[in-house]
Amino acid sequence: MNDRTNNPVTADELGELEDFLLSGKVSRSAMDLDMLDGFFASLAAGPEPLPTGQWLPLVWGTDAESAPQFVSPDEMQRILSIIVRYRELVEAVLLRTPETYLPLFSRCSFTEQSEERCAVENWARGFLVGIELTRETWQPLFEEDTDFSVLAPIFLLANIGEERDPDDLRWSECRDGIAESVRTIQRFWTPFRGKPAKADRTAAAEASDLHADDFNHECKCRRDKL
């Protein structure tokens, strides 16, 4: 198979990844593409870079037997390559041009409001999984965000906490503010993360060339499967 390790992830590859995550090859508790997108936003905006081995198992779910069932080594290599490159892309965008960052659900169209609510909730839950992965490391943000203005919308959209099932206006306000919340979180942690490593700078440089065509593209997700 062709080596795509250093190529930016494409819209078609994200569609392929979504198909895999919705297939019978993964556990029912595995992340879908929206949850994965929120998870990667959390990792990219958070306090410290994490090695692949620390976050990848969470993609497949929390079941005792949640490892994916790849049909061949080639499929395993391809899917893992897409996942890793997708994570790198989200991180590169937030690092180099955070003002253009948009969550996946903001780049998709939905035929039913229930579909959109499901996508947004899954995205928010994925973001919170990223926080819980290194909760103690995130503590300074919880202490700084005393009025809970940055994190509250994410908890609300995840349908977690005291405020559940908000009215349509409140829900829409939180949804529309998610991109700015992610950028605010990323700015908060930037001094803690220090200067990006050489590999990060390279990825960021590549991101500046692929924004319009590959990251903020019109979503091609198979929403009828959600």
Question: Can you offer a commentary on this structure?
Answer:
This protein is an all-alpha fold and 226 residues long. The protein has one domain (11-217): Four Helix Bundle (Hemerythrin (Met), subunit A) (Up-down Bundle), CATH 1.20.120. 60% of the residues lie in helices and 0% in strands. The protein contains ten helices and no strands. It has helices at 11-21, 33-45, 52-59, 73-96, 113-133, 135-144, 152-157, 168-176, 178-193, 198-215. Helix 1 (11-21) packs across helix 4 and helix 2 (33-45) runs parallel beside helix 9 (178-193).
Feature tags:
single chain; disordered C terminus; 226 residues; Four Helix Bundle (Hemerythrin (Met), subunit A); mainly alpha; 0% strand
Query: Can you give the helix content as a percent range?
Result: 55-70%
Provide the domain count.
Answer: 1
> What structural class do you assign from the helix and strand content?
mainly alpha
Count of helical regions: 10
User: Low-confidence runs (pLDDT<50, min 5 residues)?
Assistant: 195-226
Task: Summarize it.
The chain has 226 residues and is mainly α. The protein has helices spanning 11-21, 33-45, 52-59, 73-96, 113-133, 135-144, 152-157, 168-176, 178-193, 198-215. It has a single domain (11-217), classed as Four Helix Bundle (Hemerythrin (Met), subunit A), CATH 1.20.120.
